[in-house]
Amino acid sequence: MKKSILLFCAAALLVVTAGCGGRQKKAPSTASATAQQTINYPIPTAYEVTSLINRSGAAFVIGIANPVSRYDSYLTESKKAFALGVYGADLAYVSTYNMKQETLDYMKVVRSAVEDLEVSTNFNVALAKKIEDNIDNKDSLIMIISESFRDTYSFFMNSGKDDMSLFVLAGTWVEGLYITSQVAITSVRNEDMLQVVANQKESLDTLLGLIEVRASKNAELAQLLTDLAPIRREYDDITKGKVSTDEADQIFSVIEKIRDAAVK
């Protein structure tokens, strides 16, 4: 599922090709120049994942998103970037279900992360007002946030911060699968949810491939590969694009441990 769209965080990952993810780009002189040099988003976006969950008929599950209060505990640049991916997925989840107050709360914490990472895009200029003005129009809301995610991803790639974009993508992918796992536990349409889980195998392969390209030069990315190794082993056993209930249960157990260790 290599798609050219927004991402931000599809965080699933970095570029449609590993080569794109591995090269440094010359930083543009202005934010507008960055916006003009949009780069293809490498994996399914958080909205694609949460929309599949929504369309399956699964109910919204309260309390599974990463609490916004945790953001102040993320002190390093890589932690903030990973958190940006996590909160981006959470924002996609709550806005897909039209949870208005939660959408505003997660928009604010995403904006804080963007500002701390010194990202110069529309995300930290007029996004808050646009979201507030369209809070009752879910389709417009999703389009606005998706565009901002795409701009943020493009900024990282165009400003030579490829490594940070990988942490964002990883955070988005991990949180997206974690949300899927938590919703699946209570879903009555289990077959649909199992397919959503199976669909994450290809994006995981893409993500890990992009990280591997740069891990030899970045110790934190090397550690991220180690942290994601257990979920890679689970997906390596998946064949023919489908997962059984037992396989899904094992994936859910592993991703919960990875996610909890990463956000605490």
Task: Describe this structure as you would to a colleague.
The chain is an all-alpha fold and 264 residues long. The protein has one domain. The chain contains twelve helices and no strands. The radius of gyration is 17 Å and the shape is globular.
Q: Which outline best applies?
A: globular
SS-based class: mainly alpha
Strand content: under 5%
Oligomer: single chain
Quick structural overview:
With 264 residues, the chain is mainly α. Helices cover 66% and strands 0% of the residues.
What's the structural blueprint in terms of helices and strands?
Layout: H1 18-22, H2 31-36, H3 46-55, H4 77-96, H5 100-116, H6 127-133, H7 138-158, H8 162-186, H9 190-198, H10 200-215, H11 219-236, H12 245-263
Helix pairs in contact: 3-4, 3-8, 4-5, 4-7, 4-8, 8-9, 8-10, 8-12, 10-11, 11-12
